[in-house]
Specification:
Elements (H helix, E strand, L loop, with lengths): L2 E4 L3 H7 L11 E8 L3 E8 L3 E8 L6 E2 L25 E10 L5 E13 L2 E14 L9 E4 L7 H5 L7 H4 L8 E5 L7 E6 L7 E9 L7 E3 L4 E4 L2 E4 L6 E4 L6 E3 L1 H11 L2 E3 L4 E4 L3 H4 L3 E5 L2 E5 L1 H4 E3 L4 E3 L1 E3 L5 E3 L1 H6 E6 L4 E7 L2
Parallel strand pairs: 4-9, 5-8, 16-25, 17-24
Antiparallel strand pairs: 1-21, 2-3, 2-11, 3-4, 3-7, 5-9, 6-7, 7-8, 10-11, 10-26, 12-27, 13-16, 14-15, 14-20, 17-25, 18-19, 19-23, 20-21, 22-23, 26-27
Length: 355
């Protein structure tokens, strides 16, 4: 199983191991569905009790739904299940926005104000209803996206001249309840968890280590000097990029290309340009070495069963070359490590997940 090995200075121990008392009356846990080990969805009731399965995304800041207004040329819409835009409870805010993602998917949305209920919390929330979409034709299981990033980067907020469009902020949580946490299940038959207002200690094995955010408007931490360790081999896991995004909207770990190449070579994987993956012997799923990252003097170790996946006829690693200007640790990492997104204290907490 994954492990954490602290190598902390005396001055860093108190900060690294801090925990906070939580008012349990403000804490709510809702289940998440593991969709093909590619992404995780939660159910929300919207408008006149339309039930939608929304993909959690800490890497973006806007909430939108596939809607009956939508057209596409690649089959991204329409789908059998869409938000019905004629819902009499929603309010047209007469604004729109375009959004583009790193994987080249994109959407254009009209903005509406809706009643939004998730995890026992009911709020009014401005959201996007898609009018055009592309690149979502292979993910019919998600009816939209729940942006868990920061309002500063919200395109909806910008279109509404700075109004709050952030679902988590709209809950009005205060003090040490200004956090949400995720437990990502390993298998599709098991449920993950989104905990709002705190964290679920039953899903944690050992201590929680906290890392201050390196950005005022993104779930990033400083990884200057981060190293990798694979058995007896070690080296720098970052070269020019100094921040890492903890992103529920990404499946893989994305590193600078030279680092990804080096790690995969040590693991015994080779890049296949046709498959666009680092291909590896399927036997290594169960007997490959642990892959460890040393982040701010704490070592996070990931077993091969987590970082190697199998397609229909070959196996590949989930360690990829980043195409952006940031290192990204996605669901692969969060399956191994329970993650606390602590907005009130501007930090991220990590602990071995009790799978």
């Amino acid at each position: 199983m994954p492990s954490i090995q602290p190598i902390l200075s005396l001055l860093g121990i108190a900060a690294a191991l801090q925990t906070f008392p939580i008012s349990r009356s403000k804490v709510s846990t809702t289940s998440m569905t593991n969709v093909r080990s590619a992404f995780y969805t939660v159910q929300a009731a919207v408008g006149n009790q339309q039930i939608l399965n929304l993909d959690l995304d800490t890497g973006s800041s806007d909430t939108w739904f596939r809607s009956s207004l939508c057209t596409s040329t690649d089959g991204s819409c329409p789908l059998p299940k869409e938000f019905v835009a004629s819902d009499p409870t929603i309010v047209d805010l007469h604004a729109s926005f375009d959004i583009n993602y790193a994987d080249k998917s994109k959407a254009t949305c009209e903005i509406y104000l809706v009643d939004f209920t998730l995890g026992g919390f009911k709020t009014k929330l401005p959201v996007g209803l898609t009018t055009t979409m592309a690149g979502f034709n292979n993910t019919p299981e998600r009816d939209g996206l729940l942006g868990l990033g920061f309002n500063d980067l919200s395109k909806i907020s910008s279109a509404l001249h700075g109004s709050n469009a952030n679902w988590f902020d709209s809950l009005g949580l205060t003090g040490n309840n200004q956090m949400f946490s995720v437990f990502l299940s390993l298998s599709e038959i098991d449920k993950g968890e989104l905990t709002i207002g705190g964290y679920d200690s039953s899903k944690i094995n050992g201590e929680i280590y906290y890392f201050p955010l390196s950005s005022s408007n993104s779930w990033q931490i400083d990884v200057t000097g981060m190293k990798y360790q694979i058995e007896t081999q070690a080296g720098p896991a970052q070269i020019s990029l100094k921040s890492m995004l903890i992103d529920t909207g990404s499946t893989n770990i994305y590193l600078e290309k030279s680092v990804a190449d080096t790690i995969n070579t040590i693991l015994g994987a080779a890049y296949d340009s046709k498959k666009k993956n680092y291909i590896i012997d399927c036997k290594k799923i169960n007997d490959g070495p642990d892959l460890s990252f040393v982040i701010q003097d704490t070592t996070f170790s990931i077993p091969s069963t987590y970082y190697i996946s199998q397609s229909s006829n070959y196996c590949f690693t989930r360690i990829k070359a980043s195409t952006s200007k940031i290192i990204i640790f996605g669901d692969l990492f969060m399956k191994a490590f329970y993650t606390i997104f602590d907005k009130g204290n501007k930090q991220i907490g990590l602990a071995v997940a009790q799978q």
